[in-house]
Amino acid sequence: QVQLVESGGGLVQAGGSLRLSCAASGSIFSISAMGWFRQVTGEQRDLVAYISSDETTTYKDSVKGRFTISRDNAKNTVYLQMNNLKPEDAAVYYCYHYVAGRWGQGTQVTVSS
Questions:
Q1: I need a labelling partner for 13 at 20 to 30 A (CA). Which of 60, 66, 87, 89 fits?
Q2: Long-range contacts: 63-68, Cβ < 8 Å, 24+?
Q3: What are phi and psi of 47, to 5 degrees?
């Protein structure tokens, strides 16, 4: 069974950067698309960035040019580099494994103004 472990969240000032990591267990990582979603309490979970198995990427409009999703299949890990963070980026961030249909536990990102 695929398990996902996220890390890298924290508190950062507006304009700062964070890099989130999501490490996956199992042998099917390389064939799966991966996504980073975020959720604010009381709101729906929204897709922020997506990377296919062939490394095609898409982004939510509000993060284009600031966030970069990447993957390292040798490490079974997907990353989200977040630059120039804004207070509206604060949320719990989750990674998602499309083939397994599994979510990570979430990591909190807080951005102070």
A1: 60
A2: 63/89
A3: -75, 130
